[in-house]
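Researcher: Last one for today. Full complex below.
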Amino acid sequence: MDMVNIKVNGVSYEVPQGSTILEAARYAGIDIPTLCYLKDINQIGACRMCMVEVKGARSLVAACIYAVADGMEIFTNSPKVQESRKMTLELLLSVHDRKCLTCERSGNCELQTLCNEMGIEEDTRFEGALPAGEKDTSTAYLERNNAKCILCRRCVAACQNQHVSVIGANNRGFDTSIGCAFETPLADVSCVACGQCIVSCPTGALTEKDYTQDVLDAINDPEKVVIVQTAPAVRAALGEEFGLPIGTNVEGKMVAALRRLGFDKVFDTDFGADMTIMEEASEFIHRVQNGGKLPMITSCSPGWVKFCEHYYPDLIDNLSTCKSPQNMTGALIKTWYAQREGIDPKNIVSVSVMPCTAKKFEIKRDHEDAAGLPDVDISLTTRELARLIKKAKLNFNALPDEKFDDAMGVSTGAGVIFGATGGVMEAALRTAADVLEGKSLEQIDYHEVRGTASFKEATYHVGGMDVKVAVVSGLSNADALLKKVRAGEADYQFIEVMCCPGGCVNGGGQPIQSATVRAYTDLKSARAKALYDQDKAMPLRKSHENPVLKKCYEEFLTDGPNGHKAHEILHTSYVKRGI
Amino acid sequence: MQKRISHLPFHDTPEQAQKLDAAIEGLKGQPGAVMPALHQAQDIYGYLPQEVLKKIADGLGVSLEEVFGVATFYSQFSLTPKGRNHISVCLGTACYVKGSDKVLDRLVAKLGIQPEECTEDGEFSLTACRCIGACGLAPVMTVNDEVYGRLVPEDVDKILAQYAAK
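Model: Here's the assembly. Have a good evening.
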């Protein structure tokens, strides 16, 4: 790496050539405040928060986009810089809805943090009109309140990064607001519900639609049996809400917290993930052996499914018909479990905790109602669960480690890794290889499909044939791959797509980390590691070895995986939505 | 001011559609093609109907929101049709202090439309513009290419009658 010599605040440093002043300063251990900057996603120099003084320059420069040069002298803490920061914040506040006390992002708001750090006072020098426009509450998963928007455009960049691009800045000057074309409500455009905009938002302008009160109402209703399930990726991130290091697996404490919140049963979506593998691997083998539509593409990720329906409606027959693990678990709760326990499914409130906002959309889809009732009634994000725990004043970090309830809380390592990109593929391969070879294979680690690379491919020789697979996460990567599939330029048999970059661990429902944390930490790999570590330590690591799953096929889905009954309960259908 | 969006029904002629297709075809693949495409489309249609913005987005392979964002950013672009007679009231500083806002209010009341709108019969459209360089005549409005200066709100009625008759 070529280095250049610069001075920051009078001290000499050697920093990589070509870096921006922001990167160079951070390399040297000096932080510069930012708002619109989001590493790798939004680097546009728009908010003017990161202005610094460069000796010889006519005016202050934006550190996030200005490249260093040899001999440059930079001042990040001069009175001129401090005054500029103060004025930028005051101008932002002059048109900001300052109801911090009741804001969901209070305590985790980048604007609030900077105002505190810079000593901004209540009475600022400027007063402006609050942005006009109603809140957009049109969808089941997201709310936008432009009165709290600082027009940083991080959400716009996140949406573009997903190749969805349904939001942008409309109008100009004081009238600028983030919205859709023709000010159409979000529910009526081809938004895929991924929530990457929410986790990119520095303030409280974008939030998930909160259903915590609905859950509390259900728990407090003595008539109702309230059953919760948690997705694999939730345990890998929930701890962040309680100050634990990123990548801490808090499965045991999470289960304990859910019991103390009053849920009657605490089940594991990993069980549903194992069921998904049984169904999906069987469906795949069936398609291969019977000339079915290939490549088969996974259908666990509802943001991805919605993307496919909007942008690649011609490829919906390539989607596996399997419901997602969330809805498989939900469907079995209201059918098999209800039957076995003698509970009227009408009295069951099926709740899920997901790293995802698109799951809120998924539960309202057609054909997600095996018992004639919604498979899942309420879907919460990881953040909403954290909110419930805080509201109940549970001392999360002091809770004991507890186990999921046996009935549907038993899972394998294959189910656990569903939360990370490549995990579904690896889990499916573990089962498909055993089934096709007719024996239990020792080699079950498929390293080629692991890791956070945007595109992974491999060919495996199983059961006398070569299976060519591809794994992508993030919709821009999915888009590129699907273009090839559509053009007939890709000869894969099986493709895994996860909507969010890195998979569910980096989902739109996960705890929100600031741009500064995201500049230093790769959330995707840190959280994924927690899941792969758990997989490695588990006695059972193949879905088809799950004892509860075996019982389910023996007792209930008696014509086996991908059989008629399984299709009624565990499979679904898709619609061509278009844009 | 937020751009008004027309919900009036969209009609185009085969000639207009053909011209737009040709314009888009000529710009395809060029960086920054949205702006010239919008300019040409406005020349063809007189304004930017929703259907035309969709055609531009599809044709150039950019998102509809991006096209809409650009169209609403620049004041030169109009999302509402122009009437047979287009009225423009200057709200530049000189005209404003001389009471052009009252003139505009009068027009809004008489025509029953807001700035950036067109009457349903297509006779009149209205816009509030920035300085047109006739400050000496403030307050000023234009109807088509005709300039009317030193106005008082009451003048509006007479001027409108003149054009309605035509």
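Chain A is about 35% helix and 15% strand. Chain A touches chain B at residues 132, 160, 165-172, 175, 180-183 (CB under 8 Å).
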